[in-house]
Amino acid sequence: DAGVIQSPRHEVTEMGQEVTLRCKPISGHNSLFWYRQTMMRGLELLIYFNNNVPIDDSGMPEDRFSAKMPNASFSTLKIQPSEPRDSAVYFCASSPRGSWGTGAFFGQGTRLTVV
Amino acid sequence: GENVEQHPSTLSVQEGDSAVIKCTYSDSASNYFPWYKQELGKGPQLIIDIRSNVGEKKDQRIAVTLNKTAKHFSLHITETQPEDSAVYFCAASSNTGGFKTIFGAGTRLFVKA
């Protein structure tokens, strides 16, 4: 298996633009997580899907952030409009059943820079 | 809210020495504790984990211990090698409340050759 695949690997955009990050989880995994990593705040869980349904989005910073999982093999994280403080590395991770008992498998991340 | 504290933030050891990273969690419902290693430019990778019904687990040079009463858990790396240099994260989660995982702030380990 190729693991969790994220695209793009790097994204540079201007403030105010819409940004869409993409994730393909490992086949057969029914849980998907979006994390954000910054030096100041470390790894933060943004949202968690189970069987394509959002279970916990309490980590989504504000309404500018939205996430979807239209099917078991694809998810998107959208920021509209983007702001410089959104600059971070965004990770997608998947797990066979939550992340309890098995841990989560992380993608390579998308480094987002908003200028 | 739930919190996981991790110490030290930076650790430098000589090749061949042992390294110990300690974490404390606040949510008494936490019952699964994974450890992740993150190398530069990559996502975190699960290296070992422990469940609350076990006090210790070992996998080659890596071991984890758990003290449920004190809400402490630790990662022990023996015979460290330069390739062990990375950032290590502890985490805590429970199989209730949506399987939410809380990560520690990370420990940057340097192994000097």
Entry summary:
The complex is a heterodimer of chains A (115) and B (113). With 115 residues, chain A is mainly β.
Which terms summarize this structure?
heterodimer; A: 115 residues; mainly beta; seven-stranded mixed β-sheet; four-stranded antiparallel β-sheet; B: 113 residues; six-stranded mixed β-sheet; five-stranded antiparallel β-sheet; 11 strands; globular
Q: Which chains share the greatest interface?
A: A-B, 23 and 25 residues
- H and E string of chain B: EEEEEEEEEEE
Mean pLDDT across the residues of chain B is 93
Strand content of chain B: over 45%
Query: How many strands, which pairing sense, and closed or not: the largest β-sheet of chain A?
Result: 7 strands, mixed
Category from helices, strands and their pairing of chain A: mainly beta
Output the helix-strand order of chain A. Answer: EEEEEEEEEEE
Assembly state: heterodimer
User: Which term fits the overall shape of chain A?
Assistant: globular
Q: Low-confidence spans of chain A: pLDDT under 50, at least 5 residues?
A: none
Low-pLDDT residue intervals, each spanning 5 or more residues of chain B: none
Please, could you describe this protein's structure?
- The complex is a heterodimer of chains A (115) and B (113).
- Chain A has 115 residues and is mainly β.
- Chain A has no helices and 11 strands.
- In chain A, strands 2, 4, 5, 6, 9, 10 and 11 form a 7-stranded mixed sheet that branches.
- With 113 residues, chain B is mainly β.
- Chain B has no helices and 11 strands.
- Chain B has strands at residues 4-7, 10-14, 19-25, 32-38, 45-51, 56-59, 62-67, 72-77, 86-93, 101-103, 107-112.
- Chain B is globular and about 45 Å long.
- At the A-B interface, strand 5 and strand 10 of A face strand 4, strand 5 and strand 10 of B.
